[in-house]
Amino acid sequence: MITSIQLLLIICILAIGAYFYSKFNASRLAVVIGVLIITICGTLIFFPYTTTRLANLLGAGRGVDMLFYFSFLLLFFIVIKLFSKIRKQQEQITEIVRKESIKDVKNPKGPLNRME
Amino acid sequence: MSPYSTCVIVPTYNEATVIKETIMGLLNRNYIIIVVDDGSSDNTYEILYDLPIFYLSHLTNLGQGAAIKTGIEFGLNKGYEYFVTFDGDGQHNPEDIKHMLNHMIVNKYDIIFGSRFLTNSSKSVPKLRKMLLMCARYFNFAITQILLSDAHNGLRTFTKETAKLLRFRENKMAHATEILFDVKHNQLKYTEFPMQVLYTAYSINKGQTEFDGFKVLQDILLNKIFR
């Protein structure tokens, strides 16, 4: 018996999979990784108790709780990584814009003319 | 000290209506002027193109900190002895520069910060702005151990040696706090100097909003987190 949350989750996972498939270059490796991820997600969605044994080993109670903790950590890490990447890129853009503006100084003799 | 050894860096962003007046005030005092147009979309260049100034323009809007740093780099390349940062919105009085520079040279300071709170002109500072600056002041003190009476003032003078040491990276307004990190890190000799800030309807409208204070805070925190 499929519950509505399972149905909803599997639709979301398939939709995300389809989105990535349309965005990324459909190489064999990408397809393999995508199918693998969907299979893992599907297993976790339809057999949630498979994770509970591992969770019990770690002392996390339910498998869903353990997944929640780990996905939170993973997302947090990704956000920090992105922030740091954006800042680095911003610094590079600044450097390029600065170099360009110094190279292209308008009126480069202006103040010198006045001194002569 | 010859005024020709001093470059005044004027960062500007869409200030076409007041920029000419600001620049003329400086030209009348014979300073070398480096205008850094931070990606203005108005006709700033058309207004300034025939004036005897250096005109640098950013391809895109990066922020006041980035514009000032571009000006500093350019000024260092040109070999000027003294550096001044001066807002383009007509808030500052060009007459203050001379006094600040004299004070810096005579007393061998590395950097001098303008302060609107050391003069009577502080009475004209809007109330909310005053409160915000007060918070910024103690925030700056908490993280840099430098307590200035005016936390975010665009008028500063510094020497060539100091200019080489300023390594601030923040493109937006947080550079004002970052400069204090540089001062502390390099143990620079600094002081504050009374200056006038003219609050016109234009500058209040154009300047930082009270809400921007939170953005500055966020930038500084990110700056501290990501080295």
Automatic annotation (TrEMBL), chain A:
Transmembrane parts of this sequence: 6-22, 29-47, 67-84
Domain of life: Bacteria
Pfam families registered for this protein in UniProt: DUF2304
Database matches in InterPro entries: DUF2304
UniProtKB keywords: Membrane, Transmembrane, Transmembrane helix
Protein name per Swiss-Prot or TrEMBL: DUF2304 domain-containing protein
Organism: Pedobacter frigiditerrae
From TrEMBL, chain B:
GO MF annotation list: transferase activity
Pfam families (UniProt xref): Glycos_transf_2 (PF00535)
Keywords, ordered alphabetically: Transferase
InterPro entries, alphabetized: Glyco_trans_2-like, Glycosyltransferase_2, Nucleotide-diphossugar_trans
Organism (species): Pedobacter frigiditerrae
UniProt xrefs under CDD domains: DPM_DPG-synthase_like (cd04179)
Domain spans labelled Glycosyltransferase 2-like: 7-161
Transmembrane segments: none
Lineage: Bacteria, Pseudomonadati, Bacteroidota, Sphingobacteriia, Sphingobacteriales
Alphabetical list of Gene3D superfamilies matching this protein: Spore Coat Polysaccharide Biosynthesis Protein SpsA, Chain A
Name by which UniProt lists this protein: Glycosyltransferase family 2 protein
